[in-house]
Design goal:
By secondary structure, the protein is an alpha/beta fold. Helix content is 28%, strand content 17%. It is built from ten helices and twelve strands. It has a twelve-stranded mixed sheet with strand order 7-8-9-6-5-4-3-2-1-10-11-12. The longest helix has 13 residues. It binds iron/sulfur cluster. The site of iron/sulfur cluster has 12 residues, from loops.
């Protein structure tokens, strides 16, 4: 049933490039219990003040305003979303927002063993787990946490619920690290139901160490795989970030998310809300739109909808990572969320 706001704001969210915006990613916290080298310094980041973080009710309200504007797919991210206290209760509130048909979570997997049941009861229907290595020592090397066994148990725990599908495993692809992981992940993808995807390293790391050369591209990884297994391309879904291939012998699929070498901005339908209430119209946005301020100052849903619509109209056409003069956003990945 569409709310009155949906009636009045029936015009779907669209940017000036003609793209409809239907996918919202909400970072529910900037905090994380891992220290992945491609994301955060060993000592962590300066965390947002608690008072700056949106409450559950504020997130619910903004998601409601955006679903009224046509957003129907919601991904909850962090930092580490499950590190936020009572996260399953938030997920349950958001699953009930009219118009939200798809609710997913991106997690490092550490809390999944504890929260799997609660997430399913809350209405989460898809889960992405970040795992960059299937070797315990190398997992420790990249995340600075000896956590692989617990994360794999968490993966099994959530996969035990058939109502959560697909369960995806995301591995960040970095030169001089991931090459040694590729065939292990192929075996993993071929022997389980998990959809394994390699994601190119992006210039959003807290240490600002990213260099174009540090990217191991999807094409390079595919070449490593095709030296052992024949692959067949699967037709790309509209708005999809991954290019998926099936193993020609039928033993599963593997995917590549190549934002650096093969950008997918042309049909991007995504916007992001940060934990402190700022709207980001692109992962690489330099500018953000404050929603927390007007909301806490008493703006109506209609007024918030206009602020959102206006910001989305100015959504960036594409990222400029490969262009001279590219400026990385001031906010890094841990405070943006995937
Ligand atoms: S880089 Fe920006 S425009 Fe491109 S796909 Fe990502 S969010 Fe969309």
């Amino acid at each position: 049933m569409r709310s009155s706001l949906q009636e009045t704001a029936a015009e779907p969210l669209r940017d000036a490039h003609g793209r409809s915006i239907t996918d919202l990613r909400v970072s529910v916290t900037d905090r994380c219990n891992f220290r992945c080298q491609y994301c955060m310094p060993a000592e962590g980041m300066e965390w947002l003040e608690r008072s700056a973080i949106l409450s559950f009710e504020e997130i619910e309200r903004l998601v409601g305003v955006m679903s009224g504007l046509g957003v129907d797919s919601l991904r909850l991210t962090g930092g580490e979303p499950l590190a936020r206290r009572e996260f399953p209760r938030l997920a349950s509130m958001l699953a009930k927002v009219p118009g939200i048909d798809d609710l997913s979570v991106t997690t490092n997997g550490w809390f999944l063993e504890r929260d799997a049941r609660a997430l399913v009861d809350a209405g989460v229907n898809r889960v992405n787990v970040s795992i960059d290595s299937l070797a315990r020592d190398r997992f420790f090397q990249i995340t600075r946490r000896d956590a692989l066994p617990k994360v794999l148990r968490g993966l099994e725990a959530i996969a035990a619920f058939p109502q959560v599908r697909p369960v995806k495993v995301n591995a960040i692809a970095m030169r001089d690290y991931t090459e040694q992981e590729v065939l292990r992940f192929c075996d993993f993808a071929r022997s389980t139901d998990y959809q394994v995807r390699f994601i190119e390293f992006m210039p959003l790391d807290g240490d600002r160490n990213w260099e174009p050369d540090s990217v191991l591209t999807g094409a390079e990884i595919r070449a490593l795989i095709e030296a052992r297994f024949a692959l067949e391309a699967v037709a790309r879904e509209p708005h999809a970030t991954a290019r998926v291939y099936r193993f020609a012998d039928g033993a599963g699929e593997i995917g590549f998310i190549n934002p650096v070498s093969e950008p997918f901005c042309a049909d991007c339908n995504r916007i992001r809300l940060t934990a402190d209430g700022r709207l980001r119209t692109c992962l690489f946005s330099i500018h953000e739109t404050d929603l927390r301020g007007p909301m806490r100052a008493g703006a109506s849903d209609g007024e918030l909808a206009e602020v959102i619509r206006d910001a989305v109209w100015r959504k960036e056409l594409k990222h400029r990572v490969n262009e001279p003069g590219f400026r990385a956003p001031p906010r890094t990945m841990s405070a943006i969320g995937g």
